[in-house]
Amino acid sequence: MKRITLLAFGLCFASALHAYNPSVHRQLASFAVSTLLELSNYPAQPLSHEQLANIAANADSGEDTSPSTWLQRLTNWHFYNPYKEDQQQYTLLGHININRSMTNLVQQREQQLCQTLQKPDLSFDDFASAYGSCMHFIEDVTVPAHVTPVFHGPILPGGATGHSWPGIIHDPFDGYPVNLDALKKEWNEFRKKTALFQRLGDIEQLPKLISTLFDVPLADLETTFKVDQAPVLYCVDLTARSTLARLFAPENRLASYWSKDIGHQYFQGYGGSFDQVDEKQRKPFINKQHFLATVVTVALGIHLWTWERGSVISRG
């Protein structure tokens, strides 16, 4: 009975730890896969682009909602801090061991993706499902609270970094809807910059591409992961660093957020709640983060498929 009670509590708790709402994940995944299929010369598929995008969107949002991921989600949270991996273990109620960092989970999804890519009869719908699961974590680290990290959700018994009473810590960034018109506009402007746009087909150029598109110092994007060894973690790390570099405050973000415990209290880790940020700053920032998520996931998709199949980005 005690184990059942703990599991029930844990599942309720895990369901409150979303980064983006599942609907936002679905929109971002669908947009990215549709863009990927449009840009690249993939072989003809029996399924439509819309159907393939839906497969990826289901896998993406399923990382938060699918019953098959509930237990894993309870014990592997979707926050990211590569400098403090050894400090991310937490025991819930003295019985459930939790890893607050997503790194281990990303590595598992990356391994599953690599196994999928090795299928001799690989179809794009198989690829879309494994790829969609990996996209989820890239999207998660465009949410500031998931890279600072601010551990939001129900208060944990015994307390934990990032939690304070009373009630549930909420990140208002999570539910901000995708502005599809703004996202399409960003991509249309991007396509006009021909030389820059071609970098999308070379994932090793991704740091320079992000630096130019999002006005992020290149020095802030020095990842320790190798794209030929761990392409998904490479993209997660680059995206997380981009998010930190784009935050409004404080200065010296990497030192403040990843090198020491700054004792987050109710979403104060990066200068206050987004509810308190001026609307003129908030909306453009969040729209750009959605653009960042799709740029990185499209670049990853092109790389993964071309890596195994020799397809190239369309020059047209």
The main β sheet shows up as: 3 strands, mixed
Query: How large is the count of helical segments?
Result: 12
Q: On the 0-100 scale, what is the average pLDDT?
A: 77
**Shape field:** globular
Strand-residue proportion: under 5%
Number of strands: 3
- What is the topology, as strand order, of the major beta sheet? 1-3-2
Return the string of H and E elements.
Answer: HHHHEEEHHHHHHHH
| DSSP helix fraction | 40-55%
Low-confidence stretches: 1-16, 158-167, 250-257, 259-275, 310-316
User: How far is the first residue's CA from the last residue's CA?
Assistant: 62 Å
Describe this structure as you would to a colleague.
The chain is mainly α. It contains twelve helices and three strands, in the order ααααβββαααααααα. It starts with a helix and ends in a 7-residue tail after the last helix. The chain has one domain. It is about 55% helix and about 5% strand. The radius of gyration is 19 Å and the shape is globular. It has a three-stranded mixed β-sheet with strand order 1-3-2.
